[in-house]
Amino acid sequence: MKRSLVCIGLTILASAAAAQSSVQISGGLKVAVARGNGGTTVMDGQTGNRWAMNDLSSALIFSGKEDLGGGLRAGFELASFLRIDNGSSWADTGGPFWSRRSVVTLGGNFGEIYLGRSLTPQQLMALLSDPWYWDASAAQIGWQIQTANYTSTAYIRTNNTLGYVSPNMGGFTLSLAASAGEGTVSRDVGGSLTYSKGPLWLGVAYDQSHGFFNHATTDKVTTLVGAYDFGAVRPLLSYTRSRVNGVNYTGYSAALTAPAGANGLVKAQYSHLDDSDTSTAAKEALAKVAVGYQHSLSKRTSLFAHLSRAKADLRTATSTVEAGIEHAF
Questions:
Q1: What is the domain class of 22-328 according to CATH?
Q2: What is the pLDDT at residue 20?
Q3: What mean pLDDT is predicted for residues 244-249?
Q4: Closest CA to 186 of 225, 163, 221, 160
Q5: How far is CA 226 from CA 40, 199, 200, 202, 253, in A?
Q6: How many beta carbons lie within 10 A of that of residue 158, not counting itself?
Q7: N or C: which end of the chain has fewer CB within 10 A?
Q8: pLDDT digits (tens, 9 = 90+) for 268-287
Q9: Is residue 24 within 8 Å of 62, Cβ to Cβ?
Q10: Model pTM score
Q11: CA-CA distance, 290 to 214, in Å (whole number)?
């Protein structure tokens, strides 16, 4: 009898918890067939002088939230990069399995606090000014240009991070983050302030640490972004100034997206970095152009095609054409 009462009690508690919480499995699968010309300019997503199938940052995401009452909520997100072209994950190359993001959160009217592994506020803001969202396509503007060679302690993310995102206050949102080095890497601190209202989006962000390569001096980066949706076209601009291992770098980009009919989206960008090879004293400025078209077959499935060309000083141009499919779930 006592055992039955205990079972009934646990069932009631489980039902109550289920009514106040939810867990979701989501993600995106994006893969393309690509051909490159084998140029010596290095850029993300290049294929060499051959046909290749490239995974473009596919992801598997587990997330959830719980209503704690009194306006409080708890949540989590566990996100992993996947390789649809060969079935592997980042963990297969020695990286963490939950490489994309792994956080637990506590939120309310005050905003949201998160703890774990995540993009820095500066990196996230820069990513949002790239029409391809750094999706590993050869067409993307890419983190190297938009962060001007700056890296955080875990490249573009930080581990052991305590972060805060404010509520929207008249269009303004403040994000702050600090990560503990735990005696292995340096401490990373930074933040961003964005303004989003109607068609206008503006932002400024800053980050500092000794970087992924643990430089002797403190590395610093500042990024400015802006976009305005005119309806027929939405231009996006970014400008970054960094100091990495005692050397200053500058990167900028001008991009746009434009709807094409009911289901189409055109993307284009020009970007520039004043020195793309930090391992040599010689300056190797990098210029990159890309165009793309995305056609939505449904709310979750799209076809796309991209053309891109990048040319660094002292190197031959790298050109890539790619076409593929994206499916969200």
A1: mainly beta
A2: 61
A3: 97
A4: 160
A5: 32, 11, 8, 4, 11
A6: 29
A7: N
A8: 999 999 999 999 889 999 99
A9: yes
A10: 0.90
A11: 33
